[in-house]
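Batch manifest line 457
LIGAND: PLZ
JOB: complex structure
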Amino acid sequence: MTIAEPTITTGGPALPQERRLVTGIPGPRSTELMQRKQSAVAAGVGTTMPVFAAAAGGGVVVDVDGNSLIDLGSGIAVTGVGNAHPHIVDAVAEQVASFTHTCFMVTPYESYIAVAEALNRVTPGDHAKRSVLFNSGAEAVENAVKIARAHTGRQAVVAFDHAYHGRTNLTMALTAKAMPYKRGFGPFASEIYRAPVSYPLRDGGLSGEQAARAAIGRIEKQIGGDQVAAIIIEPILGEGGFIVPADGFLPALAAWARENGVVFIADEVQTGFARTGRMFACEHEDVVPDLITTAKGIAGGLPLSAVTGHAEIMDAVHTGGLGGTYGGNPVACAAALASIDAFENEGLCEAADRIGDIIVRRFRDIAASDPRVADVRGRGAMIAIEFCDAETGEPDAALATRVAKAAHAQGVIVLTCGTFGNVIRFLPPLTIPLELLVEGLDIVATALRDDSQSSAR
Ligand code: PLZ
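JOB STATUS: finished
ARTIFACT:
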């Protein structure tokens, strides 16, 4: 093990692509900062790993103590192009030096239009489209619902079990899981209904069509198709556990929506931008959503989000009905243009598939002899392992937490998720060197193996 220089001044891909621990995790500077966080930052903001970042790039995050950590989280699926991608850094620096803000609704600027044109081009479907830009995923989802209601003149919105759509009032209502997202924060927005989703591990092996029939039956009985403005679904349910609906589920829902004049919204905030091996996850089943929400990967880490969709649906809203002070901020737009260019021209969909193959192969091997690994699933570089008790089959959240913590202690950033908290998810930057990925997976696999040895004792 090499000893790091204590101060790291360079970010981006120039950082040595290696795992390197020079202190315990967390180190002394991180521990100090954690204490400051506790006395300055609201307690409601959690921390996955108590280490503070100093630089990041490629597949590593370097902390303030000089530890170099393997990044298997991308800041929750954001830095797909790699942290501090050089083209993004240049584009942002150039923009920030010319102007930082005018408000697109006051005196507009070209880059917003260029981002809208790029989104209209790269999202599924070759129909006429329009886009509108916002700051966060939740804001995009809120606005997609506004647009669908304005277009249809209807109010009801259908979301699914295990869904996650954000933390604002309307998106909390759309989100399924109470703790930590909703508990104590009601009352929630009205006219939100929940339908069952296809969850192959847990729905008794329904086919996609059967699961869609169950969902549609619920909607027709409890709301009525002609009352529904929109159905919103993540093509792979992210925070809910990287649930990949059985083949045929999404196309059947989209077809039903079309027949009933219901706007089909794909929330691709987490799945979008090459993450699943395609530019958008809907493409795996040739589903063309009416509206698509994007954020996270869109701008290499700068806050930007969008709603893109059919021109006639998008244009149903009166002038002045959509907007916001910062939506489509010029610095974020500059980053988005550089980032979309990287997604299109740097082979990142292929990189996502290579990453996914390595993760899936590794954990399917383990699952073959370890009954605690109930499922290994996902697409591209969005892969998860779900843990269940080997005897009872019940979700084992404690195991997921222990394995994640053990990996953290070894310098691997790994995230959990799932309605039952029993899922470890892998979302590496698409630029991670494959040897580093394998080293990170080795550490997670060893943590899992050692956990079985300690609980067998
Ligand atoms: N839709 C599908 O995944 C954000 C949430 C992390 P914002 N997911 C990460 C947390 O605990 O807050 C997300 C998503 C999907 C919407 C959102 C919301 O995006 O940019 O966090 O608002």
